[in-house]
Amino acid sequence: MNRHEIEPSYENSKKLEKWIGKIKSRWENYPEFKVNQEKLKHLAIICDGNRRAAEKQRLNVSFGHQAGVETIKGIARASREWGIHAISFWVWSTENWLRPLAQVEYIMDLAIKNFTSPSFLEELKEKQVRFTHIGRKDRLSTNVRLAIENLEKQTEKFTTFRLNLGLDYGGLDETARGILKMFDNFQKGEFNPQILRENPQKILDFLDTANQPEPDLIIRTGMTKKEIFRTSGFMSSQTAYSGWVSLPHLFPDLAPQDLLKPVKKFIGYERRLGR
After folding, report:
1. Looking at the annotation, which residues are catalytic?
2. Domains of the chain
């Protein structure tokens, strides 16, 4: 099967359109709320469950990713209104390339479509959102890479909000790339590794989220009560003091109230941070 064979029939096209419409409507009606920015500056979400959600709708699993895109858009808009400075979404791991080729091609086409959308860039500019890709760029197609680089360039001066998208991201891979950057700077005489003895936090300057607050809260969707929680190595160096929450909701099924519940609980919790 190739990506063209994934195209929905007329009946499934209508079903997909209805599903996407419900997701848009759900996230257009988020409740009013303001976070305590001293407690929650950076929210990260591991977006699990797109394919399972599509199966529930009796659609090709690839269409779940389209539903996931609409959910990301809704969450990103709601989080800005709630006053969350930075939000990260992990949508494609370094291991996901092992999926069937048709799914991979469909998802990359979906990425190009959304990254090159004039309305997406206009929204980022209007809301002063800096877009950052986290993960590897070298394995992405030229079209996807250029679209990402354009978004990053066009928004690099914005400081009001941050939007991070993990595409071909893996925590161990990020750490390895960070070490290589550090070594490269050392060879150029631009970095003294002895500084890490005094301030281990300096290692974060070489990671994909450099110059951003570390995630305060990470939410992983699509985990049933029977599953043992796992982080899958997500931002392993940045999340030492982060709060972690798993939700049973499949990512496209997530509603504003489902997201706000752990956010409110986290804000009400006093982290001791070793004190």
Report:
1. 48, 96
2. 3-23+38-267 (3.40.1180.10)
